[in-house]
Amino acid sequence: MFIGLDLGTSGVRALLVDGEGAVLASADRGLQVSHTQPGWSEQNPQDWVTASREALQELHAKAQAEMAQVQGIGLSGQMHGATLLDADGAVLRPCILWNDTRSHVQAAALDVMADVRALSGNIVFPGFTAPKLMWVAEHEPDVFAKVAKVLLPKDYLSFWLTGRAASDMSDSAGTSWLDVGARGWSDRLLAAGNMRRDQMPDVIEGTDVIGTLRPDLAQELGLSADVQVVAGGGDNAASACGVGALREGDGFVSLGTSGVILAARSGFHPDPGSAVHTFCHAVPGRWYQMGVMLAATDSLNWLAGITGASPADLTAELSDLRLPSNVRFLPYLSGERTPHNDSAVRGAFVGLDIATDRAELTQAVLEGVSFGLRDSFEALRGTGADLPALLAIGGGTGSRYWVELLATILGVPLQLPAQGEFGAALGAARLAMCGVTGDDPLQIMTKPDIAETIDPNTHHSAAFDEAYAAFRSSYPALKAMP
């Protein structure tokens, strides 16, 4: 038996699977995010521990006999968060999360330093970990002086579980301290951010064992003291393990709160100028690249909030695929990553008319998000990634209209998986299986069954290509506005 423990921004998910990967039980606990100032986003690491403890206790209540047979726990989690510990392992301040933009000045300064892009393989985004520590050094020097270790969110959970400070390659690749090609901490990158190697956790592969469960915690949770905790991966890398995206040509598009297009790569092919993320995969000897937009289903949720309708009600007003709307939506409600790396830009509607109704606004929002994802798709193609089809996951795939629209705008078939678990928690459990048994990830991390494949609507392809060109031209005009 194995457990996958996934620490998301909005909650913790614990998944119990057997040796064949079949799900036996699951448990979820919600989390809150604190926004004390504009652009700030924080969580209390103790809340992660409380939520994880409760989720694991619920698994024990549901499957007591099976929990006693657990051999390994794998971890996945939200990336980039700065969890600061003192010499005694105590948390110094709330964790600054991935979607916190306060360190945009520090990120810009770090990004232009010599060797930073070349070694890290990425633009330094404000959401990354290194600029957050530079912000702390400038604005909270008393806290910075006490920092003995910096842990990513999921790695704080493994520290709680084992007492060892360790991180995997895929999560560490999003710090701007890791030499992503060489898969190890870079003294040059650490020095650029005024950090030291001794402040870093041990960096290991996602299939490596961190250690065994603390005896007191094992007894509390009804687990064997021999349970091994495996490093796991950042959320997108773990999700790729959950859907079997390990080889060249494998990839997925995620219509979640943020939007992601991910391509598995067998080698290191960075292109920082495109704002594509190039990270180590959670399995040894592999990498992945992804384009990220910050407001995917968040854009639809925003429209739902101001219209008083649910997202499902809004999309239900659209049936057969329409030609592109005359209204254009720029989905930059929280800034944007790929391809603009612009934390300051904000969204807009263009072309509103007295006759514009709610359905057309919904259509424009879905199109704007889909065009934003095509930006990422084109950027990935520019790095040499070949994606003949994509698995489509995330809450937005519940809208058949949106899936057909996105397939048409991207110009590739989208595959909808059959019902079941295939996300980050399953990926974490699979990483635990590989770590404990030594099995080949390619044999463990299989692809889900496909329920349906949605092909592009070729009758509308040319019209959407033209609309995408107009969308592309809108960003410079929006950026130029005072």
CATH class of the largest domain: Alpha Beta
Number of strands: 23
CATH topology annotation of the largest domain = Nucleotidyltransferase, domain 5
Q: Using the 3D structure, state the CATH architecture of the largest domain.
A: 2-Layer Sandwich
Estimate the helix proportion, in percent.
Answer: 25-40%
Gap from first CA to last CA: 58 Å
- The shape, in one word, is globular
Describe this structure in words.
By secondary structure, this protein is an alpha+beta fold. The protein has 2 domains: 2-238, ATPase, nucleotide binding domain (Nucleotidyltransferase, domain 5, 2-Layer Sandwich); 244-421 and 449-482, Nucleotidyltransferase, domain 5 (2-Layer Sandwich), CATH 3.30.420.40. It is built from 18 helices and 23 strands. Strands 17-18-16-15-21-22-23 form a 7-stranded mixed sheet, with helices on both faces. A 6-stranded mixed sheet has the order 3-2-1-5-14-13. The protein has a two-stranded antiparallel sheet with strand order 4-7. A hairpin with a 3-residue loop joins strand 15 and strand 16. Helix 11 (235-242) crosses helix 16. It is globular.
